[in-house]
Amino acid sequence: MILFAVPNVFLYLPGSSVITSLPLMVLALQLLAGQSTVWLPRALSDRSVDRAHFARIVHYSLPWVERIERLARPRFWPRATTAMIDRLIGFACLVMSLLLFLPIPFANGVPALAIIALGLALSERDGIWLILGFLGSAFAIIFVTAMIGGGAFALARIF
Question: Which of 22, 44, 84, 86 is 20–30 Å from 95 (CA)?
Answer without folding.
Answer: 44
